[in-house]
Every structure is written in structure tokens, then in C-alpha cells.
């Protein structure tokens, strides 16, 4: 039987997509069929067997930046938001619409215009949309990213996250926002 993985993406300028298995880039051949149509990228694994088990990563990029993410259960993820504007700047984080408070599970920090949110001990319930809002006297702006949590937790497994989402606020002249999620940990 075959197996299909799909990711829906949106962005401008034009996007290009790539798929990886265990860190190696895949291409369309007798084993894999890769498609990208109407904002949906698909990876079809033909005649899937146990040998096809592994870590699949999707990467999308354009001239503004790239986004790819691989996170494992039990590991940690760090989301970063670069915020530029006139102080004071108030930053709030949300997960699926619920405001996040710092504690053992979530650690929010603000250092040198970098707002970071560390999500510890990833579980399936941590999957979802994370929203960062930044507010100052000139107004407010926000950016969001979707975090997928996949795989099985293995003792001593290293976390692998390589995500870069870049964008700029156009709503307020006193505030510029830049998102990135880097290889943290």
C-alpha cells in the first residue's frame, strides 16, 4: 500500500517545497511522488514497507525565508519572535487562543528584542497554533506559527528543530516584527 503525507502552506512571494527522510532530501522517483498544487504539498510513498519508517521533514521557502520543523515527543521546542519598536513593548504568547503563563511547561523570555517561548516536554496536546502579540504606544501586531509534534519519545533522543519564519509588520511604522525558530537546544 501507499502512504501520503500532506502539508498546507501559504505565503508570498512564490513558495518552493522540499521533503526529507532522515535528513536526506527526497525527489520524485519510483519510490516517492512529490507534488505541490494549490498551496498543498504532498509526499506519496509508493509500496510502503517497514523500511520506509523514519523521520520525514517538510521544508517550504521563498525569498523571505524558509520554514521546516521536526520535533519529537518528550523534547523541547523554542519559538522566537524578533520585535523592533519604541519601548515599552508588551509581549504575550497564546496557544490555540489561550494565553500562556510562564512556569515549568512554558518559559517566556524577552532579551534584546528577542521574545522566546520554550515549550518543555512536548506532548501531542502541545500541537497547535502559537501566537505572539506585541503592543506598544503605536499599536499592536501579531504573528503565528503552527507547531507539529510527531514521533515517539525515546530516552536521550536529541531534539531537532530547524525552523525559520520571517515576516515584517506593515501596520505600524514604529514596530517591525521578525519571526524565527532556530536550532535551539
From TrEMBL:
The keyword ATP-binding does not apply. PANTHER family: NEURONAL IGCAM-RELATED, TITIN. This is Ig-like domain-containing protein. Residues 1-72, 74-148 form the Ig-like domain. Keywords: Repeat. Transmembrane segments: none annotated. The keyword Repeat applies.
Amino acid at each position: 500500500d501507499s502512504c501520503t503525507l500532506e502539508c498546507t502552506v501559504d505565503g508570498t512571494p512564490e513558495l518552493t517545497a522540499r521533503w526529507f527522510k532522515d535528513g536526506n532530501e527526497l525527489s520524485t522517483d519510483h519510490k516517492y511522488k512529490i507534488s505541490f498544487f494549490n498551496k498543498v504539498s504532498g509526499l506519496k510513498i509508493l509500496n510502503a514497507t517497514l523500511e520506509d519508517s523514519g523521520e520525514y521533514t517538510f521544508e517550504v521557502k521563498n525569498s523571505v525565508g524558509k520554514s521546516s520543523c521536526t520535533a519529537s515527543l518528550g523534547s523541547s521546542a523554542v519559538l522566537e519572535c524578533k520585535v523592533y519598536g519604541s519601548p515599552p513593548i508588551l509581549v504575550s504568547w497564546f496557544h490555540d487562543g489561550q494565553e500562556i503563563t510562564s512556569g515549568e511547561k512554558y518559559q517566556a523570555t524577552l532579551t534584546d528584542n528577542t521574545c522566546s517561548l520554550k515549550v518543555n516536554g512536548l506532548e501531542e496536546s502541545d500541537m497547535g497554533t502559537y501566537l505572539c502579540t506585541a503592543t506598544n504606544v503605536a499599536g499592536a501586531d501579531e504573528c503565528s506559527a503552527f507547531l507539529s509534534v510527531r514521533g515517539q519519545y525515546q530516552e536521550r533522543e536529541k531534539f531537532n528543530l530547524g525552523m525559520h519564519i520571517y515576516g515584517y509588520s506593515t501596520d505600524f511604522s514604529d514596530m517591525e516584527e521578525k519571526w524565527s525558530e532556530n536550532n535551539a537546544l
